[in-house]
Write a structure and sequence with these properties.
Residues 15-75 form the HTH tetR-type domain. Helices cover 72% and strands 0% of the residues. By secondary structure, the chain is mainly α. The chain is elongated, with a radius of gyration of 21 Å.
Length: 207
């Protein structure tokens, strides 16, 4: 029994150390970009050896993947006790933008990596391809639900509308990162969502 407890304790300690490395890497990558940071710098921030980092992550590319997935896990997610869907879900996307506004360094990292990852050889390429596919699918699903409920126009193309919504969200993030004193990302996105839904609920035929 004591041996089993020891193994569980060792496993938990390993998971805690792994998360500590990921958080440190996220902070360094966000502050200085992924390319500029070495595994030795991550190790120094955590207070362990380079070999200690390599024990958990065989390469910087592997660590980057862990950082990206970790950030997804701790990002804003819907409250399971207050599930919403359709038009309400689209309106609630403003909360995600407001959440992102609280962590500009992380958003800068993701904006930079998403552009660099257009190169198929970039270590984050597959991650961002999958991430955008999932995001488009989620938004399109909610728009399809709104359409079946009669909350938006029957001639709405959910997939095309989802692409427009995500493009606006990401475009405003870049403008905000470049000029935060003059771009109110949250307010601008909220106004867009209002106009977006007004258009989708109008009775005029789509051109």
């Amino acid at each position: 029994m004591a041996e089993q407890k020891g193994r569980r304790g060792s496993y938990a300690s390993g998971l805690a150390r792994r998360e500590e490395i990921v958080v440190a890497a996220l902070e360094l990558f966000a502050a200085r970009t992924y390319d500029a940071v070495s595994l030795r710098e991550v190790a120094a921030k955590v207070g362990i050896t380079h070999s200690g980092v390599r024990h958990h992550f065989a390469s910087k590319e592997e660590l980057l993947t862990a950082v990206l997935h970790y950030n997804d896990q701790v990002s804003l997610t819907p409250d399971p006790d207050h599930e919403i869907s359709g038009v309400d879900w689209i309106r609630a996307s403003v909360d995600l933008v407001a959440f992102n506004a609280q962590k500009p360094l992380v958003i800068r990292l993701f904006a930079t990596l998403s552009v660099q990852a257009t190169d198929p050889e970039h270590p984050a390429h597959n991650y961002f391809v999958k991430r955008y596919r999932v995001a488009r699918s989620l938004v399109a699903r909610e728009l399809e639900y709104a359409r079946t409920q009669g909350d938006i126009r029957a001639d709405t193309d959910p997939e095309a509308a989802a692409e427009s919504l995500l493009a606006t969200m990401d475009g405003l993030q870049i403008q905000w990162l470049l000029d935060p004193e003059h771009v109110d990302m949250v307010s601008a996105y909220r106004q867009f969502v209002d106009r977006f839904l007004t258009y989708l609920t109008s009775t005029g035929a789509a051109d």
